Amino acid sequence: MDKIKNFSLRNFFTSDALRKLMSFAALIMIFIVFSIASENFFKFSNIIGILLATAVNGILALGVTFVIITGGIDLSVGTMMTFSAVMTAVFITNWGLSIPVGILGGLLAGSFAGFVNGLMVSKMKIPPFIATLGMLYATKGLSLIISGVAPIYFNDTPAFRQIATGSIVGQIIPGFDIPNAVMILLFMAVIAHILLTKTLFGRYTFAIGSNEEAARLSGVNVAAWKTAVYAVCGLFSGMAGVIIAARLNSAQPALGAGYELDAIAAVVIGGTSLSGGEGSILGTVIGAFVISVLTNGLRIMSVPQEWQMVVTGAIVILAVFADVMRRQRN
After folding, report:
1. I need a surface site. Which of 109, 127, 160, 161 has the fewest CB within 10 A?
2. Is residue 7 part of a domain?
3. The CATH number of the domain where 163 resides is what?
4. Quick one: pLDDT at residue 24?
5. pLDDT tens-digit series, residues 247-277
6. pLDDT band at 308 (very low <50, low <70, confident <90, very high)
7. Domain span including residue 179
């Protein structure tokens, strides 16, 4: 009986549930500390700002979660987001297409870039780090070329901005003005969770990350499924591009660099292992909120941006170190 009890406790202390619990506890602790340290932190307008910031980074992180679970990495999600935003603006503003068609075009642009990433990794056997680094530069350059190195504004389509900053919830429940961007993040998180836990796509994602060779020997078409994973990541980047374009009411072609680091940090803090084979969508959402709350709180306390980066980097290192120690215990 004691052996069974000890085994259960050991399973709990090395489980995914504990990692998510620790991430959530860290989020609550950070929130409490900043609320005490600054009276401006807990203001409604600041909370809305945190939610809006989390929406973009969170959607990017959802896509990256799939890639990291396979044991890969995607450094291009930030610039794929920008590329998708620029293409959405081109379709709606420059070509005069309807908003739904423009959004669909932006999503397809992100998916196509992710698909190319997948082909380079799975078919051309280019290491994910190098393949996605190349895509980072390619999509960054294309964004600048297509936009003419100038922002593209949505001044003629005011309804587009409501996609991010409007509040359907506020119309239903007066005073509860949760931005649409946050609701889209939650919707995308539900879709990602279903994909990861309830579908063949999710099972093969975990299988490839756990042991790619064993998955191949079991009859899994590893190349095809890995390509699909990167395409899905591109789709989420495309959605993030639509959201950030709507939030800013413009497509900023120079934006995007650095977003991939925050997205990867959110995934790691949320408990997804960089070694592959383990991860969860809930953990990623919590990790995205940790990054946003931490960044916002340090900014309100007038901490220099360079020190903000130091703190975020230290937290990521601690998260990775905790994952290494847990694997050694297992």
Report:
1. 127
2. no
3. 1.10.3470
4. 83
5. 999 999 998 888 998 999 999 988 898 889 9
6. confident
7. 20-33+41-329
